[in-house]
Amino acid sequence: MAAEITFIEQNAPIDEYGRALYAVSRSVLRALLDSLSNEDLTDLNTPLEEVRMRQLAKVVRLERDKGMKGDGFEWAVHEALMGGEPSVLGPISHALRKASKFVKDAPPSSLLFGYERAKYLGFLDAVVDEAGNDSFLLPEGSGRPFKFGPWVSKAALGAASEPMLNERIKKIWKTDLFLSAEGDPRYFAATVKSNYALLEGGRGLRVGIVPESTHAGNHSGVRYSQKHGLWLVSLADPNGFMGMFADAYHAMGRAMCTLGKQPPPVYYVKPTAKAQRVQEQLEKYPDAKVMDIEDALNEAAQQDLVAQRHQLIGVNAPDWLHIKQMAPKVICPNRLNACLGASINEYLTMFRGQKVFKRGNDMLEYRLLLLIETAFNGVIPDERTVSSLFQTTLTESRSLIRAVISKYQYQLRSYVARTLSASLTAASRQTNGQDYTVVINSQNVVDELNKSLADIDGSLSPVGKKKGSVSTYEISPSSYNRLCSKFGVHPNP
């Protein structure tokens, strides 16, 4: 994150409400980023990671009727759960225990879904991987539960998936969030609406999350709605989470109007003084990258308080949100030349009869080997890179890389060692005694590190994912030092 972008002022400490405003503003900003299409990025002629606040403000949907408020509310509820916001944790935890008496007595967790996001590279794989191999869906009624991965993959097709879905889960394609308790394999499909009048139930949906409203019976709290067939969570408004969301939503919306030189919609209300301060801070950075502003808001949401009652947890954006590609993708000449070398070598081996492939996978594996030796300069690529080249899912790319490492292990030995050494060199820690942390975007690299640890000493702690992160891993000091010794890497302090 750019050092000059910060919303923390040492001489102006904030209270609980102010810090929570930063967290909800971060969620609304991520919803706006989520709304950008490849067409938008092409019009801006800018890759996603380079999009500036002023550019976003020029193309973003600001009208609530076009989905901005609903998308922002969905992200805000999800990240409030992941960040530990008590005004959301409490009622949703109560609803899950009402939905099933067997659910664990643990804080609720959330997986962001929405079938319209399934087109993003890595989104579906990330959802299934995060849920775990043993997880299952728990619809209403008696009968066996449904294994999470296969059914959610079908639901990602949207309304077209209904003929493929079991009758008990016919409408799970409408799911916005999959809710569970930490460590519990049971998942409940939830629909999230910022307008109670738009709430719809359906077979497979178990929980509805809406703001409190003047509709009959829709007071804040948890109740079962016979009309919708859902356990309904109504978040308090205006003196609860929904009031705070509306405040942050209008602050972000007004900031976007200012930066994009657009007139604010007539129904935009004036934010509170604290939210106006957030708006003014956002308007100070028209040329800042959106991702840097996102990081700054995440940082501000965790700052110390005047009187602290609880600590919010930082919520990292999911990988799929930050990897949308600008279309059309331009390949630079150097990269094209590197790929050309690999393709010539492949044709030469075929013409000479040195390689005879009986399976399509054999050809793909050999092609990836040649790319590793040429285009990737001897570095094992991550799953996203392979997916972009081979047009495969992340799971398929992970299997392809694993197969290549295994089949050509002697040819790739030095390349694997070089890749692992790079990860060890990038690892760091804040203070002595803490675990080292490193961002690793390839599960195969993590697996190879753990294989090396097993070869060194089976009693060493494995490399494991940091709780609450997408691709940050922790390495214990003893494991880190032994790995550095094995690969000849000078350990970081």
TrEMBL record:
This is Uncharacterized protein. It comes from Aromatoleum tolulyticum.
